[in-house]
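Subject — a protein and its fold

Tokens — whole-number codes for backbone shape
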Amino acid sequence: MKNQLIYQVDAFTSHPFGGNPAGVCVLAQAAPEAWMRAVAAEMNLAETAFLYPEGPIWRLRWFTPKVEIDLCGHATLGSAHILWQTGVAPADDVLRFATRSGELTATQRDAWIELDFPATPAQPADPPPGLLEALGARATFVGRSRFDYIVEVATEAEVRALTPDFTRLRSVQTRGTVVTSRGDGEYDCVSRFFAPQVGIDEDPVTGSAHCMVGPHWAAKLGRAELRAFQASERGGELRLHMTGDRVRMSGQAVTVLRGELLVPLA
């Protein structure tokens, strides 16, 4: 029996060691959940994606080192990149993924990959106890989506300068928190994403968070197309296009590692 291949892809970047690294494991069939959880913990990346064919579509699941999650952008981008790069899927295929957040698609657009994701707009909400104090943020707006909180601050400099208290932030009741502002230069908006509650102190680039960031800034700026930047240490660029209740999210990806898993699917 051949060993199972696994890849590491830097997503939402055009160069190695930028963007957000994702594990991608393309399977011939479904694997035991305990095995996938163990592999994700071993990879110790923000998310590892596992996918296998179901007729004309791909079943796709995402795991952090601790939990399975409902929606992940960068590992979906990485999965599409690997399917095309390895020749498993023809380059002109529109890829369809069956996920816990419904059907998602990926399309190649020159050097970019466009994902079609559900919008998850935030509604105004009171911050949970301790959130702003743990972030060290002075909020001009706080909202909550299906998944996360969004905290808007006044300037890009404030976003970049944040030094959250992650010990305190772990006790806040939320999957994660986006801190965002209008961009000062070439980008329409900038953000950072913190999720120590699911084992990720700061995520380098978060596709699912931009399903909330995109609608937020599209409404405020009065336009459907945005250039976004996630201002983590690694950094990453996204192009966003809002259309109805969907967000078309584009990014680039680079494969940096290919390995063999020596542990059988059991």
User: Anything to note?
Assistant: The chain has a mean pLDDT of 95. Residues 73-85 form the longest helix (13 residues).
